[in-house]
Structures are given as structure tokens and as C-alpha cells.
């Protein structure tokens, strides 16, 4: 038998220091492609190689590790495949900043030297995010770690590109794209942030060429008027019906442009109803230009300066300097109608922060619709289920309205596009192997496309490229299709939908059976965490603690406000439990640091409960313990069912319910419900009730109590063992630490993580005993409440408690459980009486619980005058509180202007004060009745 004592106090730093190394050394995280067990596969959403652990990562690690540990315990061949993304633009920008500090740039280095410099950075720093995931307890199969620029994945990317090109699903064409003038690359939609900020809206007069008047257009970008090729109005807008077809003398430029009728671009209800059309600098204008065959006149270059054919005085100016000059010229010409302050949401590069420039460019595209249609059908038919279901509508909207995907990026770091251009005959050569000559004319004068692929292209292949595709590997056969993808809702289209499209196209099977989309982690007030807001919560600070001097006053301002001396270590388990209990479907996680402290206290409660159990199990020989993991032969339990008490039967029945509730919740991805059930069972049922209920049994001496004592010890051990297994997927470290200290026979599992998942055992239902104990607990709770309300001293024993009931079954429960009531409520005598006898009692505190009237005579229990004064003082205070809050809520301006959350808190306060008032008034009435009876 192995037995180790747990420390006297729970120290998460100590508890979490060694077990990860133990798990990895034992190979518990590894998955076997040749196993006959059913597979359960999760592909980690690969964090950027440049990344650092944030709360979004912490959430997905918690939920995915929870699932993988749970399924591993259920007997699945569980593979959680880890890896990182090469993060094209983010990584290149980071290395370019380093070069700038050294006084050089990538162009001076040259492409090959620059790429080698990035690889050096990756080798030195790229493992940081992986190490941080390990601090969270991630049980990934690290031997299978992948990187999107690995040789195998690069081969998969090239195969996918060439195949799609051969199938006419990849093409090259001129389209409108978002251009980063600082990063000098096209950006994907995900790399462009659009947040509202203050701005201006200029109304400008465009004179009609026939001299009959002018038309007023509004714009947020006056500088683009230099490239206008039309003004669009709605054909049903009567204000402009007579102008359609007329020409405009475009100010400053001197060109004439038409007034056209268009049903899509102009909205008669917005602005003036007339819209300037600049097809070369706005995506909506670009589409309008295609509808009306308008000329593309580009006046802003790739460096965001003005270029010809803009008038000479503008050429070379920065676009914002050009804006000022355009406004100045319009003022001089008397053509500036007015200027309004108006918020707008410009697209900003998420990497450089610069406002992007929409430009028409020759780029590579993937056709959307042919790939989207099968992916739509896969979700419609139920092959893939999206959870929560509300996100299916978003998925459908994206997919039904899909546009062709621009996949080329003007970067050096990434998968270089496998296309070559013949300098002799202009042939485009796309091949699996690097060509040496043109396939059309034979010329060896060929040049490779310098662009790289959008990072999302390689990410879209992640579920199968990581398993060896395009080769037919045992891993691919075993672990594809994956069982679940767990990720954030914000990349539903950018990543999830694209994996669906590519997976179905190349594998002819969906990449995952279920998609669970978690919400965003925000601060306690519901604000997005950001460095500028000063509300960032670093997971590692929560796990290991941080001194005040280690915290950035700007980034961690909110944390320092709450913890000016720094934050104590809470541990990965506490953070994981907090995130799990917050993870309600469809709701953002509003992370309150105090809750992390609260769940650390919960783990401390478990620790203390386990210590109590272990101290009482030191000399216990668990003969049947090795059968805990399997079926009990012939109904044999690891304790004597004939000797166990009502309290034992109650906890076993409650434990059965908890097993069922937790498993059902996890099956439905209701992580919060699973965590809440464990919290209430461990804290309430096990620690607060069961341990207290069995103490007399454990402490009794003599042969008469030996059988029941041993049986109770068996129940205590079994219950703690099951608790640890149920909690292990959420809180792996503390459960392993305690589980290793349990007394058990040799030959069992080496770790709780490779023990079997608990099962509901019908023979432990104990329906009658459970109901009886629930009744007794309600009665004990009511007596304790009366003690508190009447200010009976904690150590004082109540001489007699009367239970008024005409229900014979209830009476039997009370009489049989009298010992429990006496010990837990500090009562000398328990009496069951009739209604008539109960009504005859005077000056008694009363309560109703479990359908039973409880009467406690107060004479001799309390000092009447002292208690009357105390309650009166409390009544004055609570009435003042009610008046103050009522006045605030009666202020219409406060209710209308204050944030909804603040108003709700005030209403909650009022309800609590009113409830407190009712309790105090009841207590005072009982005191007055007692005083009156004493006088009589």
C-alpha cells in the first residue's frame, strides 16, 4: 500500500511544480495511431509563434485540456495535437523592428538573409508560447508538435495550391484589396481592425458642366476626389431625376464625369443621396465601377502618397496633406458646402496601426462558392454541428455570401507562392517541383512570384496536414475526422469555415464532427482587455503571482488598483476552474480577479477536506480498492453496504447524481454546469455536511463501532477518490497531488489522469435514505438560521427543539435522525409533537422547513434587553440603507443615465436590504413575544 501525507496547507506553487514533468516522463500525453481504442482528436488552434499567453489562450487551453483529459479517462485514444502558426506579417514586422534598431532593413539584407534571420528569431523565441501553454497544464502530445512552415506542412501547402490551380479554383486577377502602406502588403480582413473614432464629413459642391447648378456630395476622404469617375444617385430619388446623364466639371482636376443611376451604392436617406464614385480607392465604388464600366484612376500609391494622374501640385504629398490641400482649394473656389463632426470606423492594420488603403491590385485568389457549397451542406446535414447553435446563422451568412479569397501577401516570411512567370511568352507555370524552364516555350528565363500565401491558407489545412497529408499515414487514417474543434467565435469564418472547405475538398470528409465556439474573455465590467485600457490580466501573473514592481502601471492599471502590493499566486488550477465555471455557452467571460481568489479558496477547501480524510485513513486497509476502477464483481463494493450509515448512503447517492450531472454537462459542452456541480458537491455536500456528519462515527471507540467505522472509512475513501477523478480534467495538479496520497493496493493506475472515469452505480441510489437525510439537513439548516437570527451564542446548546408534524413518515425520519440534529445544531433534546402541542408553546422562535414547523423556546437562551437593543439598532441601519437606495432609484436622471449594470446592482442592494428588514422585524416580534410572556 502506498500512502503519502499531503502538506498541512495548500500551496499551489508547490503542488504544481513537479507533476507536469511526471506526466510527460511517463508518456501519458502520447497518442498511439495503432491503438484499437476509439479515437478522440482535438487540433489546437495554433497560436502565433510571436505570441505570448493571454486570457484567450488560457480559456481554450482550459476547455480543450478538460475535454482531452476527460476522454482519455473514458478510454479513448486521445490526441491533442499542438503547434504554432508562422504568423506571416506579425513575425516579419517584429524582426523588421529589430533590424531598424540595428540601422538596417530587409531590403539591405536581401531575401535569403532576411528569412534566415527570421528563422533565427523563431529558434530563439518561438518556443515561448508553447512553454506558457505547458504552465496551464496542457496535456498535448508534444512529440507531434507542428509548425506551419515545417517541411511536411510546406509540402502540404504546395500540393493544395497546385491542385486548386489545376482545378481552376485558384486564379490571378486584379481586385480591390486592403493595402498596408507601412507593412507594404495586402491584408486579410482579420488583420484589419475597425473601431469607431472621431472624424469629419465634408460636403462638397460639384458644378454641372452645363452651368445649370451643382450637386453636393459628402465624403470622409476628400483627397480621393482627384480620382473620381462618376457621381451616383438612386434612380428613384426625385431630387436628382433630371440630372441623371448630365456631366460634371470635376473641380481642381478639370475632367468631366457623369451622373449615373445606381440602385446599390447611393441611399436617398443618407447624406445628400449623391455619392462620389472613386473605383480605384473604395471597394463599394470598385463594384459600382464594374457595373457601369467606369475608368479606374488610381491617385494614391503604395506608400500612401499621391501619384499621377493626380494634378502636379498634389503628386508626392502624403494622402493627409493632400486632403488639406483639396479642402483649401474647394474653399477658395467657394465649393465647400459644410463640414460636420461625424464618427467613422476606418480600417487600421492590426500590426502597424496605419489606416489601410483600398487599392486595385493583381493578386492570387481562391474561388469561394465551389468550396463553400459542400461546407454549407455538411452543416445543414448535421455532419458537423456548430455549438452554440446561434453561430450557425453567422456561418451560413458568411458562406452564402462568400467572396473569392485573396491569398497573396507582399511579404518574405511565409509560404512563397509556387508560381513562375516566363519572361519570353508570359506563361504562368504552377508546379509541385521547382521548374527549370517554361512549360510552354522552353525558355529558361523564368521568374518566381515573390509573394507569399496568406497565413490562413496553411492554417486551413491544419486538421489534415498535421497528420501527414498528402501522404496516407496511419495518423491520418486514425485521427481524421477529428471529434471536436474548440476555438473562438471571432475566427469562425477566417479559420473554421476555411478548414471546412479545404477538409471536405481534399479529404472528402468533414474535418470535425463538432465545432464549439467559446466567447471572448473581457474584464469584470465587460470591457475588452487591451494595453491601452490598462485592464490586461496576464494568466501567468494569476498562476505565479506578481509583485507590484513587476507590473506595468499602464497595462496593468486595473490590477494595481485592486492589488497595490501585487497579486499572490493563485495557481493554474484556480485559474482553470474559474474559466471553466465562467464558460457558459453564448456569454462573454467577464473575468473578475476576485473570482479566481474565490476558486483558490475552494481548492483550499478541497485540500482541507482531503487532509481530514487522509488522517482518518492512515490505518485503513482498502481491500477492494483496486476494483474502484472497474466493475464491482457480484455487486461487491469497497465497503460493507450493510454497515454504512444514513449519512454514508446520502453522500453515495449524491455522488451518483454528481457523476451523472458532470458527464451530461461535458457531453453538451456546458462546462460551467460541470464546474458548478463539482463546486457545490465538494464544498457543500462533502466538506460542509458529510465530513461533519461522520466525525462522531470516525471518533467512536470500541468493537461496537468498528464495523460502521470501517464502512464509513471505505465510503470516505471512495467518495474522495471519485471527487478527484471528476475534478481532474478541470484541476489536474491538485487532484494528482492528493490522489497520489490515497491509500491503495499495488497494481493500480500510476496517475489519476490514466485512471478510469467514474461511473454511476445503481446499487448506490439509496432513494429513501437520501430523501431522509435531505430532510434532516433542511431542518438542521433552519435551526442554525434561527440561532443566527436570534443571536444565540455559537457554543451555547439549545435545551429543546420541537418539530410539529402530523406526517408519520416525517416523524419517523426526525426520530431516527435525532442524533444528527443534536450534534449538528447543538440541541440537547428533539421532540416531535402534534399541532395542538406546538401551538401551546409560547415565546418560541419559529421556522418551516421540509414541511415541518420548528419551534424553539427562547426563554433562557438570550438576554432579552440586549437582543432588543441590538435588533433595534440594526433596524435603524437597514431602514436608512433602504431610504438611501430608494431615493437613488427614484431619481429618473440616475436611472436613465447610469450604466445598466450599476442600476441593476442598486436594485439588487434594495432587494437584499428589504429581505434583511423582514428578517429583523420577525426577530424583534419574537423578542417582544418572549418579553410579554415573561411579564405574564
From TrEMBL:
UniProt cross-references to HAMAP family, sorted A to Z: Val_tRNA_synth_type1
An individual GO BP term: valyl-tRNA aminoacylation
SUPFAM superfamilies, per the entry: Anticodon-binding domain of a subclass of class I aminoacyl-tRNA synthetases (SSF47323), Nucleotidylyl transferase (SSF52374), tRNA-binding arm (SSF46589), ValRS/IleRS/LeuRS editing domain (SSF50677)
Keyword field contains Protein biosynthesis: yes
Binding site for ATP: 531
Protein name as it appears in the record: Valine--tRNA ligase
The encoding gene: valS
Matching Pfam families: Anticodon_1, tRNA-synt_1, Val_tRNA-synt_C
Valyl-tRNA synthetase tRNA-binding arm domain boundaries: 863-927
Residue span of motif 'HIGH' region: 47-57
Positions of transmembrane segments: none
Coiled coil segments of this chain: 861-930
GO cellular component terms attached to this protein's record: cytosol
Entry function: Catalyzes the attachment of valine to tRNA(Val). As ValRS can inadvertently accommodate and process structurally similar amino acids such as threonine, to avoid such errors, it has a 'posttransfer' editing activity that hydrolyzes mischarged Thr-tRNA(Val) in a tRNA-dependent manner.
GO MF annotation terms: aminoacyl-tRNA deacylase activity; ATP binding; valine-tRNA ligase activity
Subcellular location, record wording: Cytoplasm
Keywords: Aminoacyl-tRNA synthetase, ATP-binding, Coiled coil, Cytoplasm, Ligase, Nucleotide-binding, Protein biosynthesis
Amino acid at each position: 500500500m502506498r500512502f503519502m501525507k499531503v502538506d498541512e496547507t495548500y500551496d499551489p506553487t508547490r503542488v504544481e511544480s513537479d507533476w507536469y514533468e511526471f506526466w510527460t516522463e511517463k508518456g501519458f500525453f502520447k497518442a498511439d495511431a495503432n491503438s484499437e481504442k476509439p479515437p478522440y482528436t482535438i487540433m489546437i488552434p495554433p497560436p502565433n509563434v510571436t505570441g505570448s499567453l493571454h486570457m484567450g489562450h488560457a480559456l481554450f487551453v482550459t476547455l480543450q485540456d478538460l475535454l482531452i483529459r476527460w476522454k482519455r479517462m473514458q478510454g479513448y485514444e486521445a490526441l491533442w495535437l499542438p503547434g504554432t502558426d508562422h504568423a506571416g506579417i506579425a513575425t516579419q514586422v517584429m524582426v523588421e523592428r529589430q533590424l531598424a534598431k540595428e540601422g538596417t532593413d530587409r531590403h539591405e539584407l536581401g531575401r535569403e538573409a532576411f528569412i534566415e534571420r527570421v528563422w533565427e528569431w523563431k529558434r530563439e523565441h518561438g518556443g515561448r508560447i508553447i512553454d506558457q501553454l505547458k504552465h496551464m497544464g496542457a496535456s498535448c502530445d508534444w512529440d507531434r508538435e507542428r509548425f506551419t512552415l515545417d517541411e511536411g506542412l510546406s509540402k502540404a501547402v504546395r500540393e493544395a495550391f497546385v491542385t486548386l490551380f489545376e482545378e481552376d479554383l485558384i486564379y490571378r486577377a486584379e481586385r480591390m484589396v486592403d493595402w498596408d502602406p507601412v507593412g507594404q502588403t495586402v491584408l486579410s480582413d482579420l488583420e484589419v481592425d475597425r473601431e469607431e473614432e472621431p472624424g469629419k464629413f465634408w460636403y462638397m459642391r460639384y458644378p454641372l458642366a452645363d452651368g445649370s447648378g451643382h450637386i453636393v456630395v459628402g465624403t470622409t476622404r476628400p483627397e480621393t476626389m482627384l480620382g473620381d469617375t462618376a457621381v451616383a444617385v438612386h434612380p428613384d430619388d426625385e431630387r436628382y431625376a433630371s440630372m441623371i446623364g448630365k456631366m460634371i466639371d470635376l473641380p481642381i482636376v478639370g475632367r468631366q464625369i457623369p451622373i449615373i443611376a445606381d440602385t446599390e451604392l447611393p441611399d436617398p436617406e443618407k447624406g445628400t443621396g449623391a455619392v462620389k464614385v472613386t473605383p480605384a480607392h473604395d471597394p463599394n465604388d470598385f463594384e459600382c465601377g464594374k457595373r457601369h464600366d467606369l475608368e479606374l484612376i488610381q491617385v494614391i500609391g503604395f506608400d500612401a502618397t499621391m501619384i499621377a494622374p493626380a494634378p502636379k501640385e498634389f503628386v508626392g504629398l502624403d494622402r493627409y496633406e493632400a486632403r488639406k490641400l483639396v479642402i483649401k482649394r474647394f474653399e477658395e473656389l467657394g465649393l465647400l458646402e459644410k463640414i460636420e463632426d461625424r464618427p467613422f470606423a476606418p480600417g487600421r492594420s492590426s500590426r502597424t496601426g496605419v489606416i489601410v488603403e483600398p487599392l486595385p491590385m493583381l493578386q492570387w485568389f481562391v474561388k469561394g462558392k465551389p468550396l463553400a457549397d459542400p461546407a454549407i451542406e455538411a452543416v445543414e446535414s448535421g455532419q458537423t454541428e456548430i455549438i452554440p447553435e446561434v453561430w450557425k446563422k453567422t456561418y451560413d451568412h458568411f458562406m452564402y455570401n462568400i467572396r473569392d479569397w485573396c491569398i497573396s501577401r507582399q511579404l518574405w516570411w511565409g509560404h512563397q507562392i509556387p508560381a513562375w512567370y516566363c519572361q519570353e511568352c508570359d506563361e504562368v507555370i504552377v508546379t509541385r517541383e521547382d521548374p527549370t524552364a517554361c512549360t510552354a516555350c522552353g525558355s529558361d528565363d523564368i521568374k518566381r512570384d515573390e509573394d507569399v500565401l496568406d497565413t490562413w491558407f496553411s492554417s486551413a489545412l491544419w486538421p489534415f496536414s498535421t497528420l501527414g497529408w498528402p501522404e496516407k499515414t496511419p495518423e491520418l487514417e486514425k485521427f481524421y475526422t477529428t471529434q471536436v474543434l474548440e476555438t473562438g467565435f471571432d475566427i469562425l469564418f477566417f479559420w473554421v469555415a476555411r478548414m471546412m472547405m479545404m477538409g471536405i475538398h481534399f479529404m472528402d470528409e468533414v474535418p470535425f464532427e463538432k465545432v464549439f465556439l467559446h466567447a471572448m474573455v473581457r474584464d469584470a465590467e465587460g470591457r475588452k482587455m487591451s494595453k491601452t485600457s490598462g485592464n490586461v490580466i496576464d494568466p501567468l501573473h494569476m498562476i505565479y503571482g506578481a509583485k507590484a514592481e513587476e507590473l506595468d502601471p499602464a497595462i496593468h492599471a486595473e490590477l494595481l488598483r485592486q492589488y497595490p502590493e501585487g497579486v499572490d499566486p493563485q495557481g493554474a488550477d484556480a485559474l482553470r476552474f474559474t474559466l471553466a465555471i465562467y464558460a457558459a455557452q453564448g456569454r462573454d467571460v467577464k473575468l473578475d480577479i476576485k473570482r479566481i481568489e474565490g476558486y483558490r479558496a475552494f481548492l483550499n477547501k478541497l485540500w482541507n477536506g482531503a487532509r481530514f480524510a487522509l488522517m482518518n485513513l492512515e490505518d485503513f486497509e482498502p481491500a477492494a480498492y483496486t476494483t474502484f476502477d472497474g466493475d464491482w464483481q457480484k455487486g461487491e463494493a469497497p465497503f460493507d453496504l450493510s454497515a454504512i450509515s444514513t449519512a454514508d448512503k446520502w453522500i453515495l447517492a449524491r455522488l451518483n447524481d454528481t457523476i451523472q450531472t458532470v458527464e451530461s454537462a461535458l457531453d453538451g459542452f456546458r462546462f460551467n454546469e460541470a464546474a458548478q456541480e463539482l463546486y457545490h458537491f465538494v464544498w457543500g455536500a462533502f466538506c460542509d455536511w458529510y465530513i461533519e456528519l461522520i466525525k462522531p462515527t470516525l471518533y467512536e471507540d470500541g468493537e461496537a463501532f468498528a464495523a460502521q467505522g470501517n464502512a464509513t472509512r471505505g465510503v470516505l475513501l471512495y467518495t474522495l477518490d471519485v471527487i478527484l477523478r471528476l475534478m481532474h480534467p478541470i484541476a489536474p495538479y491538485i487532484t494528482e497531488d492528493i490522489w497520489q496520497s490515497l491509500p491503495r493496493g499495488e497494481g493500480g493506475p500510476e496517475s489519476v489522469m490514466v485512471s478510469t472515469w467514474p461511473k454511476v452505480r445503481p446499487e448506490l441510489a439509496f432513494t429513501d435514505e437520501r430523501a431522509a437525510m435531505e430532510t434532516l439537513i433542511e431542518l438542521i439548516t433552519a435551526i442554525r438560521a434561527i440561532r443566527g437570527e436570534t443571536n444565540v451564542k455559537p457554543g451555547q446548546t439549545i435545551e429543546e427543539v420541537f418539530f410539529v408534524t402530523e406526517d408519520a413518515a416525517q416523524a419517523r425520519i426526525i426520530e431516527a435522525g435525532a442524533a444528527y440534529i443534536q450534534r449538528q445544531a447543538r440541541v440537547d433534546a428533539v421532540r416531535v409533537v402534534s399541532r395542538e402541542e406546538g401551538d401551546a408553546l409560547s415565546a418560541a422562535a419559529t421556522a418551516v422547513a421540509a414541511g415541518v414547523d420548528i419551534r424553539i423556546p427562547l426563554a433562557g437562551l438570550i438576554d432579552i434587553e440586549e437582543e432588543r437593543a441590538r435588533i433595534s439598532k440594526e433596524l435603524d441601519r437597514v431602514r436608512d440603507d433602504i431610504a438611501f437606495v430608494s431615493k437613488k432609484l427614484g431619481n429618473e436622471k440616475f436611472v436613465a443615465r447610469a450604466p445598466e449594470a450599476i442600476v441593476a446592482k442598486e436594485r439588487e442592494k434594495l432587494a437584499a436590504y428589504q429581505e434583511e428588514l423582514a428578517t429583523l422585524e420577525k426577530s424583534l416580534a419574537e423578542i417582544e413575544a418572549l418579553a410579554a410572556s415573561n411579564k405574564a
